[in-house]
């Protein structure tokens, strides 16, 4: 069964925060098909202000597949980081995330995307993480959060957060292993020439 991954896009999104997970899930699809299996993931990019091109950090322009109003139900909702000040203040985005939480298997963030999840009220007593540079700010703004600064990612089942930028690759590979198969995750990392081992693997 194909799982749908919804990847939120907005101006000043960090390129690898969004592009890294997109690459992981799309490569996992190619590897699966090469092995004679069904496509495990459908990745949908969701623009916070519609389908107009967004301008990522550094100037890369990306055209989202759909806007929030037309976004389908997703099994995985992933919020990348970057400059999220405007995004975390958008009522439509926060409302959409709260609704998405009701049917998604997992809501996840990369880097400062965790600030958007916090603004939406989706975080609780369980530990979270973010980019090392933003740990102090996250603790200051949400003092009740248990913020960890010594992990690449944390997965609580229905909620997952990762540290900065490249850590989103680790989290995404972990999700491939969890939602598809551990073997596919390892093969995907190998295809990407990315040095990665599943947590707990010797």
TrEMBL record:
One Pfam family here? DJ-1_PfpI
InterPro entries under this entry? Class_I_gatase-like, DJ-1/PfpI, INH-QAR
Biological process GO terms, please?
regulation of DNA-templated transcription
May I ask which residue range the UniProt record assigns to the signal sequence? none
Taxonomically, the superkingdom here is Bacteria
DJ-1/PfpI domain spans which residues?
Answer: 4-176
Alphabetized CDD domains for the sequence: GATase1_PfpI_2
PANTHER family in alphabetical order: ARAC-FAMILY TRANSCRIPTIONAL REGULATOR (PTHR43130), DJ-1_PFPI DOMAIN-CONTAINING PROTEIN (PTHR43130:SF14)
> What is this protein's name?
DJ-1/PfpI family protein
**What's the source species for this entry?**
Saccharothrix saharensis
> Species lineage, top-down?
Bacteria, Bacillati, Actinomycetota, Actinomycetes, Pseudonocardiales
């Amino acid at each position: 069964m194909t799982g749908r991954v919804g990847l939120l896009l907005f101006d000043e999104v960090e390129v690898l925060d969004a592009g890294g997970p997109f690459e992981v899930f799309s490569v996992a699809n190619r590897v699966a098909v090469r092995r004679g299996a069904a496509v495990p993931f459908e990745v949908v990019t969701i623009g916070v202000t519609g389908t107009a091109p967004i301008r990522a950090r550094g100037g890369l322009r990306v055209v989202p597949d759909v806007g929030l109003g037309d976004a389908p139900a997703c099994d995985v909702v992933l919020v990348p980081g970057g400059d999220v000040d405007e995004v975390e203040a958008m009522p439509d985005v926060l409302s959409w995330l709260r609704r998405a939480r009701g049917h998604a298997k997992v809501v996840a963030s990369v880097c400062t995307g965790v600030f958007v999840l916090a603004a939406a009220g989706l975080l609780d007593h369980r530990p979270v993480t973010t980019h090392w540079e933003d740990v102090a700010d996250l603790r200051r703004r949400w003092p009740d959060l248990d913020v960890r600064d010594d992990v690449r990612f944390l997965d609580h089942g229905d909620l997952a957060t990762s540290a900065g930028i490249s850590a989103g690759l680790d989290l995404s590979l972990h999700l491939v292993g969890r939602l598809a198969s551990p073997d596919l995750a390892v093969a995907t990392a190998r295809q990407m020439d990315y040095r990665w081992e599943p947590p707990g693997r010797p």
